[in-house]
Amino acid sequence: MTNKDYPFVKYSSETFSEEDMIKRSAEFYDWADARRSVRDFSDKSVPLKVMENILLTASTAPSGAHKQPWTFCLISNAELKSRLRELAEEEEKKSYGGRMSKEWLEDLAPLGTDWQKEFIDIAPWIVVVMKRAYEFTDEGKKRNNYYVSESVGLASGFLLMAIHNAGLVALTHTPSPMNFIAKALERPDNERPFLLIPVGHPTENAMVPDLERKSKDEIIEYYS
Prior knowledge:
This protein has helices at about 20-35, 50-60, 80-100, 100-110, 120, 150-165, 180-185, 215-220; strands at about 70-75, 125-130, 135, 140-145, 170, 190-200. Helices cover about 40% and strands about 15% of the residues. The radius of gyration is 20 Å and the shape is globular. The strands form two sheets. The chain has a four-stranded antiparallel beta sheet with strand order 1-2-6-5. The chain has a two-stranded antiparallel ribbon with strand order 3-4.
């Protein structure tokens, strides 16, 4: 379906045999299943061009009405990272010290997390994903974006897989409330923090929790 008032281009994509589709989908699953959230970051540098390619990949995600309601703040400045860590730990102390329910803390226990966020200082890059609730027209009027959280969530998923594809690791950090991030970065009023993601290499002896993902039967309901 097209609209003659707007330009369309022919979609082209590779096609595969059923056998190849099964093989490729299984290989991709095995590769994706190796991705893990990592907290043990090395300070080894990562080229800027790699990070730019990763963020451009994230920006290929679908979005409501193609509004692309995201901004990726790419941070390497040591002073700014330390400030973000300081502010994040202030909020995390409050969360671990009383905001979180007993059940929540019990669920977090197997992950070995606490209020200390040293990875913000150590990782060579911090990506702050911002969601844009609206835009401004050339006349200065507000124009809403649509399905903002859904769109930014999709872009964040693409972002994590692009990081994994580059042989790097990441951690999705959501200090709550996150308003301090927008203030520290001096972002405009139409942007709200969505995720803070350290990106870099793992340490040589990086450890991750020994966890199992839900099985196929637990996540798929069949309607034939």
